[in-house]
């Protein structure tokens, strides 16, 4: 059972609470080299058009995820991922958690 599977119910609740369209994991959390000191790489798409409330929602979600997993979360925003090489690399390996 993966780390995200262990927390699936709580993840679903957090995503609904923070207006998440989709949440996906990528990076070491999906590989054999994931260890206790590793951070968790996630990419999120939040359904909020207002810039002020978007920022509040983003940081509240990041904090809640760090509390849930008891580790650092690297939370990328889907809409801000402009580097085509990075986008392609993430899309090739990401696993959808919610959405």
From TrEMBL:
Residues forming the Polymerase beta nucleotidyltransferase domain are 9-98
Cofactor(s) needed, names only, are: Mg(2+)
Which UniProt key words apply to this protein? ATP-binding, Magnesium, Metal-binding, Nucleotide-binding, Nucleotidyltransferase, Transferase
The record ties this protein, via Pfam families, to: Polbeta
Q: Which GO terms describe its molecular function?
A: ATP binding; metal ion binding; nucleotidyltransferase activity
Show the stretches that span the lipid bilayer: none
Q: Which PANTHER family match?
A: BSL3053 PROTEIN (PTHR33571:SF12), SSL8005 PROTEIN (PTHR33571)
What name is this protein filed under? Polymerase beta nucleotidyltransferase domain-containing protein
Q: Could you tell me which species this protein originates from? A: Candidatus Electronema aureum
